[in-house]
Amino acid sequence: MIRRSTLQSMSLAVLLTLAASACQPVSAAGALPAPTVDAPKTAAHGEQVAVLAGGCFWGVEAVFEHVKGVNKVIAGYSGGDAGTAHYDEVGEGDTGHAESVQVHYDPAQISYGTLLQVFFSVALDPTELNRQGPDVGSQYRSVIFYADPEQQRIAGAYIAQLTAAKSFPAPIVTQLVPLRAFYPAEAYHQHYFQRHPDNPYIVFNDAPKVARLKQLFPTLYLPDRQVVEVQLH
After folding, report:
1. Which terminus of the chain has a lower count of CB atoms within 10 Å, N or C?
2. Which domains are seen in the chain, by residue range?
3. How confident is the model at residue 18 (pLDDT cuts 50, 70, 90)?
4. Burial of 192 by CB count in 10 Å (0-12 exposed, 13-18 middle, 19+ buried)?
5. CA 21 – CA 122 distance, rounded (Å)
């Protein structure tokens, strides 16, 4: 297992080579199938929000910041209490929080089910329990935090669909949990991918995810995404 301290000491050229060879998807060669159960694209409800957790929030945020129809993405914490929604405490692994992202999207351009299709195809390995890549702990577990019964229905049906199709070589362990609250992370965690593209952790773990998004979803991929600043309280 390669940890962050090891990644920091490796050269960029070596990391690029490792990323090309090591960050292979666990699903089929192409994108996963679209959900058979989904919400129709509509302009009737205005902006909607999805909260997803799939390991370190830097990479998941980076993926969705490059998706057409997504207005902004906020890195943060969900699953625990407000008093422990701080990076140092969450990092201990006993707060109940998972590093998460809040995805604000236009349902007239992209559906909730398509967001989940991107999530499972690109953003994480849903067969890894309480970890993603080099990051280990319950704070790195994969979770879909559903905001309402419709999101629960779509997410549950999609997990069942992927399971029945044997889309992954091991069982999907992504949790389906009601959303209690989402707490934005500290300002220095926001848009980390765009602001630190040469960080070794980003190069090895997260750049391949964005590259795979471009490869598998060319009609959804936005190459140059302007960072949307978020007012943090």
Report:
1. C
2. 4-216 (3.30.1060.10)
3. very low
4. buried
5. 16
